[in-house]
Design a protein that fits this description.
The protein is of the alpha/beta class and 170 residues long. The chain has one domain: Ribonuclease H-like superfamily/Ribonuclease H (Nucleotidyltransferase, domain 5, 2-Layer Sandwich), CATH 3.30.420.10. It contains 5 helices and 5 strands, in the order E-E-E-H-E-H-E-H-H-H. Strands 3-2-1-4-5 form a 5-stranded mixed beta sheet. Strand 1 and strand 2 (17-26) form a beta hairpin. Helix 1 (46-64) packs parallel to helix 2, helix 3 (109-117) packs across helix 5 (143-169) and helix 4 (124-134) packs across helix 5 (143-169). The radius of gyration is 16 Å and the shape is globular. It starts with 5 loop residues before the first strand and ends with a helix.
C-alpha cells in the first residue's frame, strides 16, 4: 500500500450481526477490498456474544490491516433493552480498532445515507444501487456489509473534504 493509499474499514454494529466493509482510496478512486459480517450466537450469554463479536472484528482487522475505522452512531428507539444491547455491540466496534491504534470516526445514519446517495433518508435499495456504482467489482455479502461499506465510503469522503480544506488554508 502506497503512502497515498488509504485503507478504511466501516462497521455497522449489531448484537446479532455486525457488518464490516473494507475499501481503499487511491488517487481519488474508491476500491472495494472485502466485506462480510460477524455473527453472534443468540443462545449464548450477552458477555459471550460480545466476545464473539470482539474476536470476529479482531480477525477482520488482522486480515485486512486498515489504517482508519468508521462506525455508525446508534439511534435510540422505543425499546430500551434493544437500544442498550446495540450500544454494547457498538462499543465493541469502537474498541476493536482502538486496540490496534487505529483512529475511529463516528457518523450518523443520515450523514452516511446523504454522503452515499445524496439523500439523508434513502432506503436500503437506494444504498445498494449507489454501492454498485461506486464499487462496481464488489460482491456484497449482505445488507449489514452493505451498510458497513457505505459507512467506510462516508468516512473517505468526509476526511477527503477535510484534507482538501486544510491544504487550501495552508
Amino acid at each position: 500500500m502506497s503512502e497515498q493509499t488509504r485503507r478504511i474499514v466501516g462497521f455497522d454494529p449489531g448484537l446479532r450481526v455486525t457488518g464490516w466493509g473494507v475499501i481503499e482510496v487511491s488517487q481519488g478512486k474508491l476500491i472495494h477490498i472485502a466485506n462480510g459480517a460477524v455473527k453472534s450466537n443468540a443462545r449464548l450469554s450477552l458477555a459471550e456474544r460480545l466476545l464473539e463479536l470482539d474476536e470476529g472484528l479482531r480477525d477482520v482487522l488482522l486480515q485486512w490491516q486498515p489504517r482508519e475505522a468508521s462506525v455508525e452512531n446508534s439511534f435510540v428507539n422505543k425499546d430500551g433493552a434493544a437500544t442498550l444491547k446495540l450500544g454494547q455491540a457498538r462499543a465493541i466496534s469502537l474498541l476493536a480498532p482502538a486496540r490496534f491504534g487505529i483512529s475511529v470516526a463516528e457518523y450518523a445514519p443520515t450523514a452516511v445515507k446523504k454522503t452515499v446517495t445524496g439523500a439523508g433518508h434513502a432506503d436500503k435499495r437506494q444504498i445498494l444501487a449507489m454501492l454498485s456504482m461506486l464499487l462496481p467489482k464488489a460482491d456484497i455479502n449482505n445488507e449489514h456489509a452493505a451498510d458497513a461499506l457505505a459507512i467506510a465510503i462516508c468516512h473517505a469522503h468526509m476526511t477527503q473534504n477535510l484534507t482538501s480544506r486544510v491544504k487550501a488554508v495552508l
